[in-house]
Amino acid sequence: MKLTILGCYSATPQLHTNPTAQIFEIKNHTFLIDCGEGTQVELRRHKVKFGKIKHIFISHLHGDHCFGLAGLISTFRLLTREADLHIYAPKGLKEVITLQMKLSQSWTNYKLIFHELSSTTSELIYEDDKVEVHTIPLDHRIYTNGFLFKEKPGERKLDINAVLNADIDVAYYRKLKQGADVPNNNGTIVKNETVTRDPQPPKSYAFCSDTAYNEAMLPIIKDVDVLYHESTFIDKHEDLALPTKHSTAKQAATIAKKANVKQLILGHYSTRYDDLTAFKTEAETIFKPVELAKDGKVFDF
């Protein structure tokens, strides 16, 4: 899994910082998560191939998370895109984008498929043979979801020396990878666990955008490998977090600890802060390891 931070600040774009957008790569998928202003410029800066983006996940309809989408859709059109584009977003975004295209007479030459979200409980919104994506209901001023990306368990690994010693025909290798017991060339049934090894544990990533402190998410994100959690404020500005329904770095770390995640990434900083050191310092009093998101930073896990 690979995560590229295109933008990780709240509210307005600044000269050297961008609002929220991420590219998440998993099992040959290139998912775009949120699409604040300037996203397509950052995609070019980080050499992300536009054609690889087939699924976009929008957490909520505040501008710093979706105002870059109309421009990106338009650019795809100008590049004569042909592949379908799936957008998973709160109900209402389809209406906004459709009106923009209608009034500008800029209908796409590719299929634009909106998956409108309105459930206040976690739901499976995407699935194939390798990956599934669930919503994480959040507590913000408007309807908001985070997203949980999970690898499906992989096939078992052949212990090729054991397989050869057991005299198993190559025709049964596929069934071995799928976990089945198979006969060898003498007709004896060979137990799967004697000739295969467990696959690598499936990995998971939870993206928790704008939200107040919200323990309701804990069962959904329990034991994930990596949690990105908003931390708009540091502890001394907690009085600002409550009315705006945002979190502090300490609150994000508390969620990480209670969910037993393996790694925490902080982001969505208020632009009032020139130095982000306090975010990491405060979070580490509760949970480790903590990483700070930064525009352009790449995480491999």
Could you explain how this protein is built, in words?
By secondary structure, the protein is α/β, with parallel strands linked by helices. The protein has ten helices and 18 strands. The strands form four sheets. Strands 6-5-4-3-2-1-18 form a seven-stranded mixed β-sheet. Strands 7-8-9-14-15-16-17 form a seven-stranded mixed β-sheet, with helices on one face. α9 (249-259) packs parallel to α10. The chain starts with a strand and ends with a strand.
Concise synopsis of the structure shown:
This protein is an alpha/beta fold and 301 residues long. It has helices at 39-45, 63-66, 69-78, 93-103, 160-165, 173-177, 218-221, 238-244, 249-259, 277-283, and strands at residues 2-7, 21-26, 29-35, 53-57, 85-90, 112-117, 124-127, 131-137, 145-151, 157-158, 182-183, 189-190, 196-197, 204-208, 226-230, 263-267, 290-292, 298-300.
Give a short account of the largest sheet.
7 strands, mixed
What is the residue-averaged pLDDT? 96
* Strand order of the biggest β-sheet: 6-5-4-3-2-1-18
Structural class: alpha/beta
Secondary structure: helix percent: 10-25%
Strand content: 25-35%
Order of helices and strands: EEEHEHHEHEEEEEHHEEEEHEHHEHEE
Uncertain segments are none
Radius of gyration: 22 Å
Question: In whole angstroms, how far apart are the ends?
Answer: 5 Å
Q: Treating each run of at least 4 consecutive H or I residues as one helix, how many helices?
A: 10
Oligomer class: single chain
Quick one: overall form? globular
Number of strands: 18
